[in-house]
């Protein structure tokens, strides 16, 4: 699995996101590791790997960052369809951690 910053750099390299605009939003990634771990642990990685490249990148971005809007925009799908895609590959679309 890619580390968050590696994935963002890869997406920027492919021209899918503007890293200078997106990176400040992810400065808090280290504090979100529990939520990320839940998304990654629950995911059906075999199904994710079968997705077309654009959808696979979007799902992986969501797993790593939790930013559903950015991942949905990257996928090119309407939000409702992207949430259904997440459910199909068993990625929890919403994770709440209560401390």
Distance between the termini: 27 Å
Low-confidence stretches are none
Structure annotation, total helices: 7
Strand content: under 5%
Give me the strand/helix succession: HHHHHHH
Cα-atom radius of gyration: 13 Å
The amount of helix comes to 55-70%
Largest sheet: none
Domain unit count: 1
Structural class: mainly alpha
| Mean model confidence by pLDDT | 83
Structure summary, number of beta strands: 0
| Inertia-based shape | globular
Q: What would you note in describing this structure?
A:
With 99 residues, the protein is an all-alpha fold. It has one domain (4-88). The chain has 7 helices and no strands. It has helices at 4-13, 19-22, 33-42, 45-50, 53-65, 68-75, 79-88. The longest helix is centred in the middle third of the chain and has 13 residues, at 53-65. The mean pLDDT is 83. This is PaREP6. It comes from Pyrobaculum aerophilum (strain ATCC 51768 / DSM 7523 / JCM 9630 / CIP 104966 / NBRC 100827 / IM2).
Structure summary:
It comes from Pyrobaculum aerophilum (strain ATCC 51768 / DSM 7523 / JCM 9630 / CIP 104966 / NBRC 100827 / IM2). This protein has 99 residues and is an all-alpha fold.
């Amino acid at each position: 699995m890619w580390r968050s910053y590696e994935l963002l750099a890869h997406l920027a390299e492919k021209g899918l996101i503007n890293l200078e605009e997106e990176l400040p939003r992810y400065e808090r990634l280290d504090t979100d590791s529990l939520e990320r771990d839940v998304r990654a642990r629950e995911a059906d990685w075999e199904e994710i790997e079968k997705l077309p490249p654009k959808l696979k990148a979007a799902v992986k971005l969501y797993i790593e960052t939790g930013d559903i809007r950015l991942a949905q925009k990257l996928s090119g799908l309407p939000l409702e369809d992207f949430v259904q895609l997440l459910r199909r590959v068993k990625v929890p679309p919403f994770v709440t951690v209560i401390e």
